[in-house]
Write a structure and sequence with these properties.
mainly alpha; 5 helices; 58% helix; globular; binds heme C
C-alpha cells in the first residue's frame, strides 16, 4: 500500500512538472533532459558543454527540474538568474569538476536563456 501511494505521488509529481514545463525537454526521470531542438545556434556549444560536464556527478534531471520549477530540487532554494550564477560558482568549486571560468560563464548564459524560455 505504501509503495502504491509513493508511486501515485511520484506519478502525479512528474505529470505536474511536465504539464508545467515550458522549456522543451526530452525523456523522463533520470533521462530527463533539455531538448536540443530549438536551441539557437549561438548556444549550441554551451549546450554541448553542459551535456558533457554537468552529468559527471548527477544527471541532467536535476538541472531541468530546477529550470522548470524555479526551485533547486535538492535544497529547495529559488533557482533564478541570480541563483544560477551562485550555483555555477558552487559547481565550479566542487572537487573533480573540470570546468574553467569561461566554460562556466557560457553555461550560465545558456541557463539564463533556458530560464527565459521557460518563463514565456
Ligand atoms: C563535481 C560534481 C558536480 C558537477 C560537475 C556538477 N554538479 Fe551539480 N551538484 C553536485 C552535488 C554534490 C549536488 C548536491 C547539492 C550540493 O552539494 O551542492 C549538486 C546539485 C545540483 C543542483 C541542485 C542544487 C540544489 O540546491 O538543489 C543543480 C541545479 C545542479 N547541481 C546543477 C549542475 C549544473 C548545471 C552543472 C554543470 C554546470 C553541475 N551541476 C555540475 C555535484 C556536481
Amino acid at each position: 500500500m505504501k509503495t502504491f501511494i509513493a508511486v501515485a505521488i511520484l506519478m502525479t509529481l512528474s505529470v505536474f512538472s511536465i504539464a508545467e514545463a515550458r522549456v522543451k525537454v526530452t525523456g523522463h526521470g533520470e533521462k530527463l533532459n533539455f531538448s536540443r531542438e530549438g536551441i539557437p545556434e549561438k548556444y549550441k556549444s554551451a549546450f554541448n558543454l553542459m551535456q558533457e560536464k554537468c552529468i559527471k556527478c548527477h544527471t541532467m534531471e536535476r538541472t531541468v527540474i530546477a529550470v522548470q520549477t524555479g526551485r533547486a530540487p535538492i535544497t529547495g532554494q529559488p533557482f533564478n538568474k541570480q541563483a544560477v550564477k551562485a550555483y555555477a560558482i558552487t559547481m565550479l568549486r566542487k572537487q573533480n569538476s573540470d570546468f574553467n571560468k569561461k566554460e562556466m560563464l557560457d553555461i550560465v548564459v545558456l541557463l539564463n536563456y533556458l530560464l527565459d524560455e521557460n518563463a514565456k
